[in-house]
User: Fold this.
Amino acid sequence: MVRMNCIAETSTLAPHVEAQVYGKSYKESKLKSSLEITINQGILVVKARGRLVYRDEAAALFGEVLRLLPQSQQFVLDLSEVEMIDGGGLGELVILLERARFAGSAMKIANPSKFIRELLDLTNLSSVFEIYPTVEEAVQSCDCELA
Assistant:
């Protein structure tokens, strides 16, 4: 596995919120998610961490993966460390899948937590996405390499 030089942390891309606590000023990121981009056996692997929820977090994932789409015919989205996802996050995943298909790429989901897997089943999105129990199995299912 080759780790790319860039690790995109969405929290560094977002505006910060300044809070007053006991008279002291603190800056805290609005976003509670990050992305790690690696290459595993020539396949782009995007590992999402934290929350994929309506607005900033989901939009950050969507924007970063769209930027990477031209670099790979197939990519794996690792959801093993996603703690929370809502309807906005699920919608972004569906849009991302459609944009990937339109660009001639394929998206595979790997290692969703039990909660996320149940949510994908409940919403019937598990029939739309290719879902694998591990990143390795998702990567092995890919038959294309980076462009």
